[in-house]
Every structure is written in C-alpha cells, then in structure tokens.
Amino acid sequence: MSSSPTTDLHSYPDPILHGERYYQHLQRRNILRLILTYLLPLVILTVYFGFQYRQLIIEGNKAHLKAIAENQANTLDLFLRERVVNLSNLIDDPRIELPPSAEAMMNLLATLKQNSETFVDIGFFDSNGVQIAYEGPYPQLENRDYSGEAWWVALKNKADPFIITDIYLGFRQRPHFTIGVSRVLRGQYVVLRATLDPEEFSDYIAHLEHPSEVYTSIVNQAGYYQVVTPQMGAALALSSIIPPRSPKLDSQEIVLGGDRIYYGYSWLRTCDWALIVQATSDMGGGPGGGTIINIVAFSAAVILLIFSIIVARARKIVREVRKADIARAELTDNLLHASKLAAVGELASGIAHEINNPLAIINEEVGLIKDMMDPEFKMSRSLEDLKPGLNNIEEAVFRCRDITRKLLAFVRRTELNLQTYDIHEVIDGVVKGFYAHELAVSNVELSSDYWSEPLFVAADRNQLQQVFLNLITNAIDAVEDRGRIAIATSLADGRVYISVADSGVGMTQELLDKIFLPFFTTKQVGKGTGLGLSISYGIIKSLGGNISVTSTLGQGSTFTIDLPAAARPSREHAGVPVEEAGAPAARQEP
Amino acid sequence: MQSGEERPEAIRVLLADDEPAFRTSTALCLRRRGCEILEAGSAHDALRTLRLNPDIDVVILDHLMPGGAPAHTLAEIIALRPGLPVILLSGMGRPDPSGGTPPAGFFRCLEKPCDLDDLIDAIEAAARSRS
To answer: Which of A78, A117, A155, A327 fits as disulfide partner to A163, beta carbons 3.0 to 4.6 Å?
Structure first.
C-alpha cells in the first residue's frame, strides 16, 4: 500500500466473491502457463535429444555394419584369392602334364581339397573349351564342350588370367560356382577350372566374424543371392537389397514392407559380388530401440511427475488466491463498515442535536407534570390536563426512535443488494434524511436540478447513500457558513451523470491530487477520517462508474459521478427502498 | 431559586428556540417560577422581539436555529444589546472550552436537555449580574 494506496484500496472492483467458474478458469490458466513454462521445454528437449541420440545410434550402427561388411568382404576376397592362388599354383607347376592324366587330376584335386574343403572337382580344358580331363563327383562332365558357356567366353576375353563365376546350376544341375585360371602353356591356351560347393562356402561365410549380430549374404551384380542364410532368402533368388555400385563400401537404409532396414555392403575385389550384412534382432531390432524406449519411459515418468507437481501447485495457487479474495472481501466489508461508522461519526454532532431536542422537550414536559404535583403551585390535578404534555412526550420519543432507527439502518452491516434505483429518489432520501435540519438552520442553500425523467442505476442503496452522504457532507464543510450546493443530474450516452457542486473554498491542485487517497483529510483532527472519498471512489468504481473532481480555489469544487444507466425496473421493484433509512425521515418533520 | 431572597420584579426572559413544544413547555415552567417570558421561534424573531422590548433581562438562545448560524445570532444580539446576558442552550454538547474567548455578554452554556433548576439558577444569576 505504500506507493499507490488508492489503486490498492480501490482494486476491489467487485466486493462480491468470484464464482466457482472463475477459479476453475484461473486454475486451468495456471496449469497451462506452468506447463508452457516447465513442461514444454522439457518435452522439446527430450524429443530433440531423443532424436539426436537415435541418429547417433543409427550412425553408429551403420558405421558398425559398414565395418563388418568391409571386414567380411576382405576376408572373403582373401579366401577367393587364396582359391585362385591354389589353382594357379597347380597350373603353374612346371611338372604339370599336358594334358594331365587321370591320376594327375586325382592328385591335383587332392591337393586342392587339402587347401580347402570347398573345392568339389577339377577340370582341365583345351583351347577349344572342351574339358579334356576331369576329376570329381560328376565324371559325365568329361569331354564336354564348354566353349559356349558364359564363364569360358568371359575368361577368354578377360585381361586377368582368372575368373570367379556367379553361382549357377550348369550341366550338373546343382548350384555351384567356378574358379577358372587360364594360361598359355607350351604355346597352347589352357584353362584349369575348379568348382566350389556353395554350401561349404556358405558355412565358411557363416563362420566369419560377428555371426550373431548380422546376417551375411552375397548377391551378384544382377541382385541374385549367391550365398544367403535361410533367414533371409534362398540361393539364386532375387535379393530385396541391391546395393549401389558406388561407393564400393557403405551402409544404407531401406524400407522393406514397412520396416526400416539398415545394412552394410561391400563389393568384392576378386569378383562381381557384393557382401551384404544386415543387423539381426540381436542388434536391437531398430537401432538402439531398447535404449530409446528407456529414454521415452524415463522422460514420461519425469514429465508425469512434473505435471502432477504443476497441477498440485496450480491448485494451491488458486486456493491461496481464493483465500486472499475472501480475506480481501472481508477486509473490504470491514472497511466499508468502518467508513460508514466514520461517516456517522462525522455526523455525530448533528445527530446529537436531533436527539437532544426531543429529549429537552421530554424534560420540560416532565418538569411541567412535576409542577402539577407540586402543591406550591396550587395547580389543577386533573388527569385531562396531563394529556397535551404526554402527547408532546410521546411525539418526542418517536422522533428519537426515528433518528436511531435511521442511524442503525445506515450503519447496519448489510449484504450487498444490487437493485435498480431512481437516483433522484436516493439523493432526496439522503438530503432529507440526514441534512434537513442542518440545511434549515444554516445559510447553505441546496438546490437540485434534476433530469426531467427518473434516472435509474443498478446499485446497492446503502452504498449509494454513503457516496452522497460523503459528497454532501464535504460540500457543506466546504461552503462553511454560507453558500450554495447544487446537485444536478443528466443522462448522456447511456450513462447517468450526477454532479455535486459547491460554492465553497475550492482546492489547490495539490489537494486535488490527494483527495481520493484514503486517510487524506483537510478536516480538523478527530473530525474527519479521510476515508469518505476513497470509499466513495471504490464504491463508484465497483458499480462500473467514475468519479472525478474539478475545483477552482475560492470558487468551489464540483464532484461528478457517472454510472451506467439501468432500465426502468418492473413495477414491483420500482422505487421501493430497501431500508427505511430515508423513509421515516419525512415523518420526522413536525 | 434562592430562598429568602425577594425578587423586586419578575425577570424578563426572551426564550428563543425553534421547537414549539420545547418553547411552550419551558415557558410555562419558567412563568410558574415567576419569570416573564417572551418567545421567539427563530433568530429573526428573537432579534425583533429584542428590539421591541428593551427591558429584557436575559436571553435564552437555542444553539442551532433557522435563520442564522449560532455565532451570527449571538453576535447580533450582543451588538444590539451589549452586556445583555445570553444563556446558550446547546444540543450538541458544550462548545469547545478552548474555542476562543466567549464574546462579551455571553453568560453561560447549558446542555440540552438541562435540569430546570439549573436553568432557573442560570437565569437568576444572569439577572443578578445585570443589576
């Protein structure tokens, strides 16, 4: 309350407590605000880091797959190269017979099998492409002409003196592949060829490194499986993964049947095969899937925790606000009540006069009756003679009662009761009820210049009375002994204007600035509380109105109130005063 | 009323009060006690009566009356009849004792409602002060 007491005091626009919906709305707004403040950044961070982490995992996995593919391809290259070297060694042996005898062929095959179990058979071809010597499980292939076979043509046209074929069925109708080396020996183009068993080869590949992490398969240039694990497909079937030719070594992702699949590949150097490694479920299905799920679950738990804290916090805030509202409403109520008491206090001397006069009459009448009983005065003792005096006493008693009733009605703590009142009737009630005598005995002239029609406002009668009581008391104080007070009303733009102008001392700008501050008063110590105008301000603001003041020093001040105009009330409510505060005042006049 | 003291003649009192009931009954009481009472219902009335009756000894003046602020009426009475004792009847408690020096002629202030005997005492004391 230190910097702007007026604002704080007057910030009780409606002393009626807010409804339940207001607090629900407040709670929702609070929760939303707290979520935006605390949860949203957290969610964004979680998603961002989750995504980043996932990318990292994917990149890591891809790099891992690529490394495996490279390693396995190198191993495979080495293996194939060794097989080529095995064959080359045989043909390059200077002791080789041309053409080799059956016994020699047996020895050659034995040597090969010593080198690798994958060798199945061996054949020797003359320059015409006829297998002139053969050793192996398919003796019917001996003397068969291979000159039309693709591998023969390819080898013949190839710069390199060796070829590794794709796996094919061939004359023997069994999947196999062939390594052929060509030489020109003693002026003769010859070819030594061995076939390899893909099953043995496949076993070999299956026992390459990381067997549990990846499925390894080999496809040829056309995309047909050469070697494949049963989990992925069948040999010579078309692979669903066909790695690009360039780069030679990489890892890729493709979507197959709705699943995102990561694989690493490496094209072999020894032949036109690509080695493909594909993650098994042991690698986590998706890349880092388990970890991602953990992160999401953990984040969800944290978010849930924060959310419940937010909800609890918002509830608490709303509870506090509601408590503060109730306290403020009570405080406002107390303040309003105190201000009423203060207003009555300011009227005290006038009220005392009003009560003491009838008391004096009673006193005198009692004196008269006593005189009648006093033998000294030798007066008539007829009861009939008492009557005028008793009537006077009775009248005086009722006058006192009316005054106290009026006071109590004003001071009584009343619930706010917003109804539609004719402002003229309210003002007249205040003027007649509280100032009739004071105005009659002073040189203050009060005039009313009312709008031709009744002007209705929705307000609490008691509060309106209080406002006008304050304004008129101030005006009377301002004019001191003699002067004029003019009350005028008008209607413009749906608002009711009421001005209370006095021809009093007026105020300086300095005073005007402070006039609505609580506890600011120009009256003598003990006479004014300085609450009247600040309370009036609060009341008028709470009714959706404004109160302003203009003043010229030495010429007087004008207080202007504007309130929203209300419709003329229906007949049963019209002009019926809530309290009898104003009504008995009329009877008070003798 | 002081016993054993003889009154050479009735004290002439101007009773100025705007309450007719109070004025009538007070006048009646005072007349019974030997005062001669002139009544006035307003400040204006009071001043006129005072002008017409130069032999008035004491004025009883209601503190608040139509037709003039109390200080005004009092000042006019004093101006008209300097030294005339005035008994003020106040319904608003005693005037502030520190509120300036009482004007000359102002005699006593009684609180309404006042004891009839106090009023008689005040009237007699005021009348004595004049003689």
So the answer is: A155
